[in-house]
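Might I ask for a little of your time on a matter of protein folding? What I wish to show you is a protein chain and, alongside it, a tokenised description of its three-dimensional fold. I should value your view on which stretches of the chain appear to form regular backbone elements. You will find the record immediately after this paragraph:
***
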Amino acid sequence: MKFRIAVMLFAAFAPLAVSAQETDTEKAAARDVLRRMAELEQSLDVPGLVARLTGANPQRDAVVARAKELLDTELLAMADDIATHPEIGFQEKRSVEILARYLRQHDFEVEMGVARLPTAFVAKFQAAAVPPTSGSSSSTTPCAERRGRFTAISTARRGRSASPSRSPSRSSWRGRTRPGA
């Protein structure tokens, strides 16, 4: 019985849905929207973009390999250590010291106590063109070229650093200012 009612309602209202674009104005508007969408798709050159992003890129591959190496050899262990030793918010002295020590080992200048918060710090990369190393002098994997300084304000909280984008400060990289970064 309910099925018959549903079928009858569908049969009664289906023609209304099918005739959604009946007038010449509606059809012209729909054609215009479809034409614009096709033009946008062609201007984006999605296949070309995909080919550029997924194609061979030795510099990108070297940076990715270096990031994976650091993640596997140092960063995961450091994150596990910080996570297994939780500290009270804004009193993360041990975590901040671990992070600051790591940054100093990788040629960052670390300024502690930023914004009158003892657990806040600013880290500035100092080396002009020297890639950071994992502490061993035998590392020959090139890293991303660095000629400028990147400054980020970070506060250690439960093993994670606060996102610099949440800070109202500005940071610079290669002489360009990035608002909110």
